[in-house]
Each structure stands twice: as structure tokens, then as C-alpha cells.
Amino acid sequence: VCYSRLSESMANPLPEYVTAELTGHHGPARAVRFNTTGSYCLTCGSDKTVKLWNPHRGLLIKTYMGHGREVLDAAAVRDNSRLVSCGADKLVIMTDVATGNIIRKYRGHLERVNCVKFNDEATLIISGLSDWMANLLVLQ
Predict the structure, then answer these.
(1) Which of these, 95, 93, 129, lies nearest to 111 by C-alpha position?
(2) What's the pTM?
(3) In what helix (H) or strand (E) does residue 115 lie, and over which residues does it extend?
(4) Any idea of the CA torsion for 67, 79, 126, 115, to the nearest 10 degrees?
(5) Segment 43-98, tens digit of pLDDT
(6) Distance (Å, rounded) from C-alpha 129 to C-alpha 117?
(7) Alpha-carbon gap, residue 121 to 96, rounded angstroms
(8) Strands across the sheet with 59-64, in order?
(9) 84 to each of 3, 13, 90, 126, 131, how far by Cα in Å?
(10) Residue 12's beta-bridge partner residues?
(11) What angle (nearest 5°) sits at the alpha carbon of residue 35, between those of residues 96 and 50?
(12) Which whole-number Å values give the CA distances from 71 to 12, 20, 30, 47, 75, in the listed order?
């Protein structure tokens, strides 16, 4: 995974150069997601992990585990306190960002879970499945 500085010019919004390489997954990275401020990012890997990075420094901050197969997507809540991830193991996992502890595993998906997202208030999680369906999970 590479992080590139974008051109300051609106006429040329393409990356100008690579500022850091985020290396750490053992195998392909499946998704990269910035937090709301752009100061951190999450990467999801075929190595069953989610990694938290400071992409501006190329610094790996933490590795999150818990999936039994490749992780396909992840998202953080607005205050960066929790993250949710999903994968080929048919799980959606909510994790405490600071401690790395799993808060909850959502089971019951019949297919691999391809994508996941919190709503703005972090009261709902929506997950997209391989069988053309989306599931809505209500947080309590």
C-alpha cells in the first residue's frame, strides 16, 4: 500500500509522488480506508488482519486480529474509538481501537461479507454480502 501526495493544483489532481509505503500485510491488501480527518488509515489484508497506520509517517500503529479468513473491509466511527471489519469468514467484528479487544462478533451471515460501514451516529452498521443483500445491524 502506498500513500501519495496529491498535486496542490486543481488542474492536476493526480498523485505527484509516493511519500510512504505502508508495508506489513503478508499478502494482498484488500481495502484501505481513511478516518474522517485523514490523519489515520486502516488497511485490510488477506492475512486475516486489520492494520491502523499513520500514513503521513508510514508508521504502523496497531494490528487487529480476530478474523478466520481474509478481511475485506473496515470502517471507524467518527471519534475513532471503535472499528468494524468484515471478511470472507462471514463475520462482522467490532473492535476497541485503543485496546484491540473485540467488543462483539456479529454472526449469522450466510455469505462472505464484502463491505461494512457505520452510520454517522454510530448506532447502525450496514454490511454488504456476496448474495446481493445488505444487512442492517442495530447497535445497543
Answers:
(1) 129
(2) 0.82
(3) strand 113-118
(4) -50
(5) 999 999 999 998 888 889 999 999 999 999 999 999 999 999 999 999 999 999 99
(6) 12
(7) 17
(8) 29-34, 41-45, 50-54, 59-64
(9) 22, 30, 13, 10, 20
(10) none
(11) 50
(12) 33, 23, 7, 8, 12
The cell numbers describing 27, all together, are: 499478502
2 vs 56: which has the higher pLDDT? 56
Residue type at position 35: N
End-to-end CA distance of the chain: 35
Bridge partners of residue 21, in order along the sequence: 2
Q: Percentages helix, strand, coil for the chain, rounded to the nearest 5?
A: 0, 50, 50
User: What pLDDT is stored for residue 6 in this prediction?
Assistant: 53
Q: Quick one: cell of 14?
A: 493526480
Residue 127 CB-half CA count within 13 A: 28
Which position has the grid cell 480476530? 66
